[in-house]
Design goal:
InterPro entries: FBPase_class-1 (IPR000146), FBPase_N (IPR033391). The chain is 32% helix and 21% strand. The longest helix is centred in the N-terminal third of the chain and has 25 residues, at 19-43. The strands form two sheets. A four-stranded mixed β-sheet has the order 4-3-5-6. Strands 1-2 form a two-stranded antiparallel ribbon. With 146 residues, the chain is of the alpha+beta class. The protein has a single domain (7-131), classed as Fructose-1,6-Bisphosphatase, subunit A, domain 1 (Fructose-1,6-Bisphosphatase, Chain A, domain 1). It has three helices and six strands, in the order H-H-E-E-H-E-E-E-E. A hairpin with a 6-residue loop joins strand 3 and strand 4. The model has no long low-confidence stretch (mean pLDDT 83).
Length: 146
């Protein structure tokens, strides 16, 4: 595609800016890899198994489907391989500590819209990359203005 830039190429521009910027680029690349794996699974449709089966209830009272748990595992595993200090996920009861010395924290909804998976409505991943803080939540609880 003329004029387009690969994600990897674009994110390479952030590496020289500092440790936090390089870590953020690595985290985004890790999430992109997990998203590709999730996309391949979704493309299999019913052949991938009972992904819409209810498996539990999340903290907010919404139902957790098999697909939510699979997406969470893919995203968390990817982020644990990146320089991320703390991972907060909608699917988890508490933040996960990862690379303690890493400069960033990531908050994520691994699969937003999974309640609509049976109807073919689009789903997506929502995430925020934040500076790590020394508080108990590792920087996940920040005002929206930050």
């Amino acid at each position: 595609m003329p004029g387009s830039t690969r994600l990897e190429t674009h994110l390479m521009r952030y590496r020289p800016l500092g440790a936090a910027e390089a870590a953020a680029a690595d985290a985004v690349l890790a999430l992109a890899g997990a998203a590709r794996a999730l996309s391949a699974l979704l493309a299999r449709g019913p052949l991938a198994g009972s992904l819409a089966a209810v498996r539990g209830e999340g903290q907010g009272g919404d139902t957790q489907k098999e697909l939510d748990l699979v997406a969470n595992r893919l995203m968390v595993d990817a982020l644990r391989a990146a320089p991320v200090a703390v991972i907060g996920s909608e699917e988890l009861d508490a933040p996960l500590s990862a690379a303690a010395a890493a400069p960033i924290a990531v908050a994520i909804d691994p699969l937003d819209g999974s309640d609509n998976i049976d109807t073919g409505v689009p789903v997506g991943t929502i995430f925020a990359v934040l500076p790590r803080a020394g508080d108990a939540a590792g920087g996940l609880l920040q005002p929206g203005t930050a």
